[in-house]
Amino acid sequence: MNNATRLQYLEAMGIDVRFTVHQAQTGVVAAVDVDEVPSIKQTVALVEASAKAWDVLEKQVSGCKNCELCHSRTQTVFGAGNNNADWMFVGEVPGQSEDLAGQPFVGQAGKLLTEMIQAIGLTRESVYIANILKCRPPNDRAPKVEEIHACSHYLQQQIALVKPKIILAVGRVAAQTLLKTNEPLSKLRGVSHQLTDIPLVVIYHPAYLLRFLPEKRQAWQDLQLANTIYQKIKTL
Ligand code: SF4
């Protein structure tokens, strides 16, 4: 099999050739020369490496005690969805329902997020959903800066593994954390940002939309903006 064919197989399987067998042992994403196209045997190893990297990361999170939230959580909320998704939604912190279910965006806010995802022609299963923090703050207080610092490397690894084509920051905390800014949500919405080389669009948190229904129209505009950006990327 020649290199071009191998590359096509790898792409069809959602594998980035920058992924190396090294990752099978370390769970760490590393970059290699694109010309180093793997054989079929190596391709199988890459698939296994990807699965192992996810497994390693999820185990790290479930046992994490890097901040005080480990004492108050019922369980960690790792993330859910398609590990090779083009679309990645990043919220802020688990709430009570998420803490009990171990899943991001459940309850009424989760239902609305699912409807928002469906409104742009996607399914919840086709996207990847995660939060900035993996543990619920007690009484749903705002996350502390040190907690965000302690936890953010998990999300960075999830982004590196999913390799999304577009990221949607769901709500103010997610937007400010990802973009490293204190700008208010009103200034961050409605434009395309970049997270390294990935386009990022800021949208309202569905919990906010449940309280302020008139903003739903603007939420639809945000989703349309994201979809326009995504469709352009696909044609490149
Ligand atoms: S919030 Fe993040 S850093 Fe803190 S204990 Fe949970 S997983 Fe660890």
What do you see in this structure?
This protein has 236 residues and is of the alpha/beta class. 48% of the residues lie in helices and 11% in strands. It contains 10 helices and 6 strands. The protein has a 6-stranded mixed sheet, with helices on both faces. The longest helix has 23 residues, at 40-62. It is globular and about 55 Å long.
Features:
single chain, 236 residues, alpha/beta, Uracil-DNA Glycosylase, subunit E, 2 domains, 6-stranded mixed sheet, 10 helices, 6 strands, globular, binds iron/sulfur cluster
Summary?
This protein has 236 residues and is of the alpha/beta class. It has ten helices and six strands, in the order H-H-H-E-E-H-H-E-H-E-H-H-E-E-H-H.
- Termini, distance in Å? 27 Å
Radius of gyration: 18 Å
Strand content: 5-15%
Q: Ions, cofactors, ligands: which are bound?
A: iron/sulfur cluster
**Which stretches are low in confidence, meaning pLDDT under 50 for 5 or more residues running?**
5-10, 12-25
**Count of alpha and pi helical runs:** 10
- Any idea of the CATH topology of the largest domain? Uracil-DNA Glycosylase, subunit E
Order of helices and strands: HHHEEHHEHEHHEEHH
Number of distinct beta strands: 6
Mean pLDDT: 87
**CATH superfamily name of the largest domain?**
Uracil-DNA glycosylase-like domain
Note the overall shape.
globular
Q: Describe the largest sheet.
A: 6 strands, mixed
Name of the CATH first level of the largest domain? Alpha Beta
Residue share in helices? 40-55%
The order of strands across the largest sheet is 1-3-2-4-6-5
Counted up, domains total 2
Structural class computed from helices and strand pairing:
alpha/beta
CATH architecture descriptor text of the largest domain: 3-Layer(aba) Sandwich
